[in-house]
User: What shape does this take?
Amino acid sequence: MKQLLNRIKDKIEIEFLKQRDDLYFINVEEKHIIFLLSYLKEQEEFTHLSFLQAVDYNEYNMFQLTYMLYNYETKVNLGIKVIIDREKSEMTSIHKLWPHAWQFQRELHELYGINFPGSPRVNESFVLEGWEEIPPMRRDFDTKKYSEKTFYQRPGRYTKNPKDYMKEKLYKNFVEPPKIRRKDDE
Amino acid sequence: MDKKNIKEIEKEMKLANKGLSEKEKTLFSDARPKTVRPLNKYLEKFLNWARAESLWILGFGTGCGAIELRPLMTARYDMFRYGIAPRPTPRQSCVFVIGGYASMKTIKRIVRSYEQMQGPKFVIALGSCTINGGMYYDSYNTINRIDHYIPVDIYIAGCMPRPESLIAGFDKLKEKIKANECDGMNKYVENFDWYKKNQKRVIKDWNMPDYNW
Ligand code: SF4
Assistant: This one.
């Protein structure tokens, strides 16, 4: 793995993180992504794209995409993380490298509003048919408010604090443990 | 009433089928469903007994609760001894088991299947998701109260209910059928416009006929 990283580092700039013996992550810039993915696929035997996933960091105004690759020879998972602009929210499509990526991209297009120009059937709806609001997985979408607005609530729902309720129901004679033992608790 | 008035009323009674294209409109019926009145008392009683003892459920699992239907079919719980059998199509079945949460995409299929079922038809709603949204009450994609979209005869609470409680629910349904209390089909017809309004509020791309015969 170290050699592989060195070989990549010779070519482009990356940041690198080891999570487990078989799980590594690489941070890379957006402009290098196609080069890096095709290099890993063609030369380094990372032939399998497990998933393509997005995270919305709306406080930093960016999306983070994770391409998860798998190597059948060495049994190593390698995640490639890319940061893209949230305003523009557009990314190069990779359906020419892995044909099944169109499905992931269609999903991301619907749930996050990230566009992948050129990807087949990217504008078709995936799970939400006839959606009219902003994409629901964006963090500024208020799902509770939407649910209250669209669906009919059945009255009578209430919440209890699980900690207090458990204590009241199950442990009536519960004695608090001595404070000294719990350092992390105030 | 003069002739013109009757024609106008007839026109109002027809379904608009707005979701269909002009060509498709000729292919589907635009008549409203009609209420079915019971036959004479004793015959109806006999029929209800026969209906209650042979419940054919539609094999359409909509949410995670549908996983409890499998143990029900197999040797341990064996629903066949209660006269319950699964059927593959809505045309052949009379009980619709809503197996848990219904998402926006599923509710469209649920409505379609429910309307295609032949009467008399009964609905069992399984799990707290169908009652009030359950743990998905604030989700953008999960219908909160299923009884605003199709009429429900029996609710089975739990997340998810065990096969035993399902059997108890079926027993209750049998009792209700025998007592002639399961009138969901007529309720649906009587409040047809209200149900349609609710359904169209969540199914935004309505591209099927207003009533799927
Ligand atoms: S009630 Fe629970 S088990 Fe049933 S569909 Fe909802 S979450 Fe799933």
